[in-house]
Design brief:
Radius of gyration: 39 Å
Structural class: mainly alpha
Helix content: 40-55%
Strand content: under 5%
Number of strands: 0
Distance between the termini: 110 Å
Number of helices: 2
Shape: rod-shaped
Oligomer: single chain
Largest sheet: none
């Protein structure tokens, strides 16, 4: 098939600075100095990253986790205070009676 000017319209417009993509053959494989080349017979390969920890939780997420526990503690506090007071009274009575 012959090439006509219509197919090269962009290349023939005034103000063309450069054509790119034609120079790659002029340079040797410079990437080989930096990167290692791996060969494969597979159609698709993928790199998978494993990490030891997930993303750090946000302050809001921590508060959402702690809030129910804090509420439960507040509900139980009066009972615990009462039990602790009763236990101290029992210890004092035991001391008065000489029970160790």
């Amino acid at each position: 098939m012959a090439i006509s000017r219509a197919q090269l319209a962009k290349e023939l417009e005034p103000g063309l600075n450069a054509l790119f993509g034609m120079e790659y053959d002029r340079y040797e494989n410079q990437h080989a100095e930096i990167f290692t080349t791996e060969s494969s017979d597979r159609a698709f390969e993928e790199e998978v990253m494993l990490s030891g920890f997930g993303a750090a939780p946000t302050k809001e997420a921590i508060q959402e986790t702690i809030a129910p526990v804090s509420e439960a503690i507040e509900e139980v506090k009066p009972q615990l205070a009462s039990q602790a007071s009763n236990a101290l009274k029992q210890v004092e009575q035991d001391k008065l009676l000489g029970i160790n």
